[in-house]
Amino acid sequence: MSIVGGLCGVSKKARVLVVDDSAIIRLFVKDLLIAEGFEVITAKNGREALEIASKSAFDAAVLDINMPLMDGISLLKEFVRMGIPSVMFSSLTTDSSKVTIEALDIGAIDFVPKPSVDLAMNINSVRKELLDKVKIAIMSKRIPIPRMHLSKRSQVLEIRKEVPAKRAILIAASTGGPSMIKSVLHDLPKQLGAAVLIVQHMPPLFTKAFSESLATFSSIPVKEAEHFEPVYEDNAYVAPGDYHMEVLDDRIFLHKGEKVNFVRPSADLLFFSAAKQFGPKVVAVILSGMGSDGAKGALTVKKAGGHVLVQDESTSIVYGMPKAVVEIGAAEEILPIDKMPKRIVDFLEIM
What we know:
- The model is unreliable at 1-6 (pLDDT under 50).
- By secondary structure, the chain is of the alpha/beta class.
- Helix content is 35%, strand content 19%.
- The chain contains eleven helices and 14 strands.
- The strands form three sheets. A seven-stranded parallel beta sheet has the order 8-9-7-6-12-13-14, sandwiched between helices. A five-stranded parallel beta sheet has the order 2-1-3-4-5, sandwiched between helices.
- Helix 10 (320-328) links the parallel strand 13 (307-311) and strand 14 (333-335).
- It folds into two domains: 15-140, Rossmann fold; 168-349, Rossmann fold.
């Protein structure tokens, strides 16, 4: 079962295991979830949590990363095996961002960055996001690991011609998206003849770590986008966290304009700009994610003569973004994630 729209309908009797070596964090998360009617059990390290989980069933877990005796990554591997959907509650640092991306690769549903300063000063910014993602984990009943056999690509440096892109593949995703994007990029050929532009809803620091992780599984170079850099074919660009990314005059344009659809970066803004820049030579791909970002942009791409592919409900962790594209009438095809790369290539060949 995937999440289609909002987050209503979560069972008030759902059981959540909260694991953190900080007593303050455990209390904060416990009080937050209990106020919503959930049953909450806490553990101060991974070993204790694993012992508890082996004796009692849980609908979801909230995991710290750095803990004594057994860390969050080791615990997550066990919880994935046990089928317990997990949300990582991780520090906002460069090192933590890399480990958090690793957690998403392993099978975490999503993550929430811990405030970098006093929790009490940032409680409102964390409260809603953490609660929403725990509810998503409970409702999804699915671990986001569609492809367990992805192989890392050779990192041998190739001399490539820098050819300005005349065609573009646009990818938009949110919750459940990182592993899906990785799966798609892994199966795309290294000679696409198109640029790949990616919006994954993710905070700063994490998008850089995500880009680096994608690069190890992709046949084409992948990087976090930089302001005003040229857009070349056979290269992939990931929108930095907290920046909108658009394409203007063959270059990347990054800015901190107002949030669109409550997010920044917004897929809609990328799609609008790409439709102007590339016209009908666009393939827009909307993958798993909460909300409706990308729907209006996808419709603009379709009206400009481009193609729009949407991930199906059965393989999505959250069917919000794909469903919004279907409902607005922009979806040309609805596909399971493993069929997406071939159709992208099919459309590129007829452009």
